Amino acid sequence: MKKDAAERSNTSTDFPIVIPRDQHSVSRKYISENALKVLYRLQKSGFDAYLVGGGVRDMLLGIKPKDFDIATNATPEQIKSLFRNCRLIGRRFRLAHIVFGRDIIEVATFRGHHDSASDKDKSCKKTSKQSEHGMLLRDNIYGSIDEDAERRDFTINALYYSIADFNIYDFADGVEDIKQRTIRLIGDPETRYREDPVRMLRAVRFATKLDMTISEETASPIYALSDLLANIPPARMFEEFLKLFISGKAVANFNMLREFNLFEHLFPIVEQALQGEQAAQLEQFVVLAMSNTDERINNDLRVTPAFLLAAFLWYPLSQRIAALRDSTQLTPQDAFFAALNEVMSEQQRSIAVPKRFQAPMKDIWVLQDKLNRREGKKAYKTLEHPKFRAGYDFLLLRGEIEGGDTAQLAKWWTEFQEASPELQQMMIKAVPNSRGSRRTVRKRRKPRKPKAPAQ
Ligand code: ATP
Ligand code: MG
Fold it and tell me: What ligand is nearest to the CA atom of residue 107?
């Protein structure tokens, strides 16, 4: 690390670079009360305690931190004994969570080097484990603060704010990279991506979130290594999906992930469809769904991942339904559910979508058919569906992209919701092309016996 940074600046910098409190913008004023409580309790108990990661980085950039991460030389067990509200979590990476209602402060013990520890300690199999691809399956060897800094991902994330003297300790020239707006991995990029391929997704996420550029050495190995993402457990991929797509930067992340061939590892079915015949329509649709989501998040409105997931998979699902209907005797309903099961189980192999989001995704899709059937009492029943709003919003988006009948249908529902009961009745009677009216047309086409004219 020292060598890399020194080579970069052509000077022999001694690390850490110490930035005294009067020369930086990190201040206790901007740190949450809970994070301060944890920092002080650790310090008063004789441990070193630092704010690290996004908290320091974002404050230096003048952004409000999303959360506060703390690093200490206390072991997880020692941390647990200090806080009643502490939960130890993680196998791969053991951490302490100090829980204050909905606010969680993450406290990590300084990580050490794997090779040196394995020489010293033969029992390290329990604490450190690597896969055949060089991926770290366990990273629980503890060390000193400078070793900890080398185990962190990007230089801008290896800045430590000390609660003892309020200095910032910069172990990898991260302050300079913040100034240059550069995302740069610490150490050899290929090794670091092999240890944890999720770092490729993190590089993209920080580039878009912080409006920074990924340095050439950090960016170039991604193309060749993107397949390593296949080794990441789908549950962890779901967490990364949320950070990438439910964060107000979904469109930017989508574009950059596609540039680096990373998107196909999150949504293989969608990427395949993006190479197919209906690529343009699909791309327009998902970009519209993502920009709506981004806008809602940036206006502090609620969003559900289910809506975006339903949007990503909608056209691939429709294509699958059409293919099944062409090649089998399945009824429309059976073809729909068969396609839905195929698409969902394929998707689950990359990203494990929790059940609580799968159910509303299915509701949104089922509603697309229900919204089309408006005869008799059906429109009223659909209106009472618990997920009507999401299904209708989804139809509005489809209408914007598809135009034609879909846009007409969306307009009909917009008017129907605002109409008086009398007008609603008239609207239902006037529904064009509904199954009911088609049947009527067909009946009328049959030759009939002439009836006596009504009086
Ligand atoms: P934000 O919370 O704003 O998304 P962050 O940088 O705080 O960004 P976290 O996921 O909260 O990101 O992680 C906290 C810190 O832990 C990071 O800044 C980094 O130093 C370290 N870290 C997280 N994930 C990894 C990883 N996969 N490899 C190495 N270090 C990591
Ligand atoms: Mg963080």
Answer: 1
Give, to the nearest 10 degrees, the angle between helix 250-259 and helix 279-298. Answer: 140
| Spatial strand order in the sheet of 17-19 | 17-19, 168-170, 159-162, 49-52, 69-72, 103-109, 95-100, 86-89
Domain count, the chain: 2
Distance between first and last Cα of the chain: 98
* Nearest atom within ligand 1 for CA of residue 67: 2
Integer-rounded Cα radius of gyration of the chain: 28
- Rounded CA separation 425/364 (Å): 25
For the CA of 54, the nearest atom of ligand 1: 7
Distance separating alpha carbons of residues 174 and 177, to the nearest angstrom: 5
The answer to whether residues 271 and 264 touch, using CB atoms and an 8 Å cutoff, is: yes
Amino acid symbol at 352: A
The C-alpha atoms of residue 72 and residue 148 are separated, in whole angstroms, by 10
* Best of 153, 192, 241, 243 for a ligand 1 pocket test (most atoms within 8 Å of beta carbon): 153
Burial class (CB in 10 A: 0-12, 13-18, 19+), 444: exposed
> Does some domain include residue 51?
yes
**What distances in angstroms separate CA 121 from CA 128, 175, 311, one per listed residue?**
11, 35, 51
My answer on whether 327 and 426 are in the same domain is yes
101 three-class SS? coil
The token duo for 345 is: 């189980």
**Could you give phi then psi for residue 151, rounded to 5 degrees?**
-85, -10
Helix (H, G, I), strand (E, B), or coil: what is residue 168?
strand
Angle, helices 305-327 vs 355-370, to 10°: value is 60
Structure confidence by residue, pLDDT tens digits, 148-157: 999 999 999 9
Domain boundary among 188, 222, 249: 188
Give DSSP secondary structure letters for 106-132. Answer: EEEEPB--HHHHHHH-GGGGGTEEE-T
Nearest to 292 by CA among 275, 277, 310: 310
Domain membership flag for residue 454: no
- Answer with the one of 123, 157, 188 that is the final residue of a domain: 188
pLDDT digits (tens, 9 = 90+) for 327-351: 999 999 999 999 999 999 999 999 9
Query: Domain check: are 170 and 274 in the same one?
Result: no
Check: pTM over 0.70? Answer yes or no.
yes
Annotation says 369 is catalytic: no
Question: Do 345 and 260 meet the contact criterion of CB atoms below 8 Å apart?
Answer: no
CATH for 115: 3.30.460.10
95-117: pLDDT as tens digits: 999 999 999 999 999 999 876 44
